[in-house]
Amino acid sequence: MKRLSITQLVPGMTVAEDVYDLDHELLIQKGTILTDKLITKLDLYGILTIFVEDIIQPVRPAEDSTDTELSYSERIKSSPEFQLFKTDFENDVELFRENMNLVIQKNTSLDVNTLLKNTMAIVANHSGSISILDMLQNMREYDDSTYTHSLNVALICNILAGWLKLSDEEIELATACGLFHDIGKLLIPYSIISKPGKLSEEEFATIKKHPTLGYQLLLSQDVDDHVKNAALMHHERSNGSGYPLKLKGNQIGPYARIVAIADVYDAMTAARCYRGPLCPFRVIEMFEAEGFQKYDVSILVFNLEGDWLVRFFKELHFDVITFESGFYGYESNIFLKVLPYF
After folding, report:
1. What span, in angstroms and rounded, lies between the C-alpha atoms of 208 and 205?
2. What DSSP element (H or E) covers 3?
3. Is the whole model's pTM more than 0.90, yes or no?
């Protein structure tokens, strides 16, 4: 028996110990022979490692499948659209990195217009058959630095603002708020930001200074007050449980409330050293479970209604076939809400 990461698993391996999800529900029983579908299931549930037997059993391929059949994710990654998106995204991240380093290290002016223009161009140039949410979900294996996270949050804010039917000017402002929300993290020692293990209390206290540091940095820059407030308030929560000021409800800026949701969504669907990326279903369930206490009700009520969920699933191309053969019986109230629409 040996312990392997999910990336090391191959069809034919035998599960040596029962595998449970984060809610302690049984996912796969001991003695099960792994298939491609079961390995995908483990990945989707955020399982990092499992125990397997040393002997690999032959796996008979499904009669109606072929060796050349690609998953939806693989089809996206091999598409010209994704390759172009990836190139544009990486170029924008690099430009953002260079500009931020000049601001931090040489105290130059923040080139908001250029950076925002490039980010808005990604939205304009990549609104084809593959949605931006799909693109971002399939970028998860790439760099997850503060710069990349900032661009992710900017794009998600852009999508949320559009779904909320804000004006073009407001959508652009929401995008800018997402882009610069974490600028204060660039003033935190990299050794703390990149630490793979659990942070000490002192290190976590240092991390929690980044909203204030970002706000102070932006005070000297020619940016909208909403952008400054988003940097300061994106970790505030409607029930007063956030930081740094423990603001409540409408004390939190309106754009900071949008950024808070986009920030949490991106952070939870990204891989971490202590867990794999959570699938979007898990994150939406979290918003349903605790969102009305911590986040802007006016955004969540709209976002969590059936029409928004249908739009969310269709943006990620989760159709009935995906439910049946992609997530393999994932039990969620969200499924019950959206299935009638497909």
Report:
1. 5
2. strand 2-5
3. no
